[in-house]
Hints:
Chain B: Its main location: membrane. The structure holds two protein chains of two kinds. Chain A has two domains: about 20-90 and about 190-270, Rossmann fold, CATH 3.40.50.300; about 115-185, no CATH class. Chain A has eleven helices and ten strands. Chain A has helices at about 5-10, 60-70, 100-105, 120-130, 135-150, 155, 170-185, 200-215, 225-230, 250-255, 260-265, and strands at about 20-35, 35-45, 50-55, 80-85, 90, 105-110, 190, 220, 235-240, 245-250. Chain A has a six-stranded mixed sheet, with helices on both faces. Chain A is globular and about 55 Å long. Chain B is mainly alpha-helical. Helices cover about 65% and strands about 5% of the residues of chain B. In chain B, helix 14 packs across helix 15 (about 300-325). Classes of the chains: A alpha/beta, B mainly alpha. The interface of A and B includes residues 103, 109, 115 and 131 of A.
Amino acid sequence: MNMSGMTTAITPTPKVAAMNETKVSARDVQVYYGDKHAIRDVNIEIRSRTVTAFIGPSGCGKSTFLRCINRMNDTIASCRVEGNISIDSENIYDPKVDPVQLRAKVGMVFQKPNPFPKSIFENVAYGPRIHGLAAKKSDLDDIVASALQKAGLWNEVKDRLDSPGTGLSGGQQQRLCIARAVAVSPEVILMDEPCSALDPIATAKVEELIHELRENFTIVIVTHSMQQAARVSQRTAMFHLGNLVEENDTDKMFTNPDDQRTQDYIMGRFG
Amino acid sequence: MTDVSVFGNVAKDIQTKSILEPDARTRRRNAAEARFRLWGAIAVALGVLALVGLLASIFSNGLSSFRQTYVTLDVFLDPAKLDKDGSRDPASIAKVSTFGYTPLIEKALAEAMAAKGISVDGMNAKAASELISKEAPASLRNHVIANPSEIGETVSFDLLASGRIDGYYKGRVTMESAALDRNTSPEQLQLAERLKEAGILTTRFNWDFFTAPDASDTRPEASGLGVAILGSAYMMLIVLVLSLPLGVAASIYLEEFAPQNRFTDLIEVNIANLAAVPSIVFGILGLAVFINFAGLPQSAPIVGGLVLTLMTLPTIIIATRAALKAVPPSIRDAALGVGASKMQSIFHHVLPLAMPGILTGTIIGLAQALGETAPLLLIGMVAFVREYPAGPPDGFFDPASALPVQVYNWTQRGDPAFVERASGAIIVLLVFLILMNLIAIILRRRFERRW
Lengths: 271, 451
């Protein structure tokens, strides 16, 4: 009988859902930009601690749908979302939900690296600071260090945390943005074509990072690169003309998709 | 069939042409470009020429106002005349008017001339003393009232020379013109020459031009910009304190928070229109609202400041909105993405990035306000003010003048010496404007960040 083993057993399990459990669930989601019906009847289950890739031709609505998950579409005046999206069975479009609080739970990484024009440290520390995650300066230092480590940037920047974040290379900037998102300990991280502005080497690093982040986070990534979807994701969803065409295991999707349109898109017949 | 052959010919034509020799079309295009460049260069040259002409005329007229002619005299402050009861009581000294001081100056001048052996034929002591400004007895009196203990002593004073004598050393008055002039004579000018040789009469830098208040028509040599500079400074202070926070707050609300509807569209159009409203209209508004309705005093910097604030607000709002719009949306997204509220994203990220634009707009607005004349005329700032306004904030309600109004005022006066003063005031105004623009450039460099 091992006492330490006992202790571990009774420690409450951290609030990280087991893999493959549903984290985000969308029911009959419709999105309108003014009169334009941009997303039609999307139903999808996004699994916890899984990388889900959204693929599809330009303008198919994959980014729009991604931005529904942390209500970034609220910032667009003409945009209207109907239906139900829930995270851990809580409807995020409930009138009682404050989108600001939601976004602390659902982080986002954008297409173009967009670090604040401040120091590397300030970039990562901003989120924890506004959410009051650090009581002391030393706590903040720890959070920043750990976020940079998780983003695989620590060794490159630990000696120059005070230099501007905008002075880093494109790939480093994007990893800085990932660190910034990670620093507020979100449960879901949304990535909108995070590698589209990066060269292949930087892309490889970010992809490796996504792979590691899967251990702790639910990741949804929009990508135009079929190879990238195949490399990083376990689940893939194919969008076309605002519809969710098919959602499946990535392996199946790229070898034997159910839908003809997916087959055509993957084979490069359109899009 | 024919179409194909035509197309084929053209293609062949293009292919066979050598690129070493430009064809007619290329030559025409090049000629058009050359013509455009020429017109552009001519336009720039005309602009530069106009600017050089303007500056040359202002500087040639105005630079001399920074020098002034003085007569240095040892004046015996005769107790028998200045303090008859011998009490040295400022109240009783003040009873002696400036006329009581004139004989002292005449006597001092006569003594100085006698000591140096200067005499001029056909001139009595009175005519000789006209070399000295009518302002001199007044400044002597002010000195005595301030220092009653010096009565009975002989004190050395730098007294202003009269405007004509000053003008003689600035080339404005000549022997010929003096012969026709009621206010001076060739003999006086000759006397001035002798005094200069004797070292009694000197010309040096004119600090009084920046500190002295305005003076009446007959003594241009005593007039200065003191009250006008103070009045303009007070107004700029009021404009800055009111219009920067108001303008920035209004822009942030309109740009970031206000819903986009007909009402905000209307406001937007109106702000753009307000920026184009003739400034004199703001003067009428100020007269009606601030003076007649609110009962604020006339000629006061507070009213001028409020009117100029109204004028500057549209400029600041337009510049601030443009600066806010220029901040890339990715920065807002980034802040919102980590869970910042809208207000946090604006105040922590957008506003600092927009700061260079906001400051530039504000300073340009202030510079405009500094040079504005028309609305100030309507609210009574054109008045002749010799009293300095008190220190702020009380001084905001005291009568004052303003730099551009002082320029306008001086150009209306008869004595040509005021033309020189007006040009000098324009130079001072231009220097202030250049300084403000420099500050704008420095601030912009300072706050500028790359993203």
